[in-house]
Inverse folding.
């Protein structure tokens, strides 16, 4: 089911060589930080519903295949991200509910 290599015609890097990869890595980490920082502010999010989670992972699987990236890698990453988001949400409900989002994800 994995298609390799990724389709570069859809996702050209912003620079060449190592500088381009470093910029992409930095962007991924920045987006992940933003994504997880929003979690405590969405306590009733459907992301914490089992059916919605399965649907989300199915969609990620389809999109990863279409983009030509390793499907297992994308689904595993997303599954772990959803686990982390749920843990952050649970921590936000607990005794540290006055903590900032940055403190919760550190």
């Amino acid at each position: 089911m994995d298609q390799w290599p990724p389709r570069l015609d859809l996702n050209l890097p912003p620079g060449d060589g190592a500088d381009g990869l470093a910029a992409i890595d930095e962007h991924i980490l920045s987006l992940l930080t933003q994504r997880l920082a929003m979690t405590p502010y969405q306590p009733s999010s459907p992301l914490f519903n089992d059916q919605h989670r399965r649907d989300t992972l199915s969609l990620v699987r389809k999109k990863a295949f279409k983009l030509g990236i390793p499907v297992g890698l994308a689904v595993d990453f997303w599954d772990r991200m959803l686990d982390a988001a749920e843990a952050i949400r649970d921590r936000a409900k607990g005794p540290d509910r006055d903590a900032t989002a940055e403190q919760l994800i550190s």
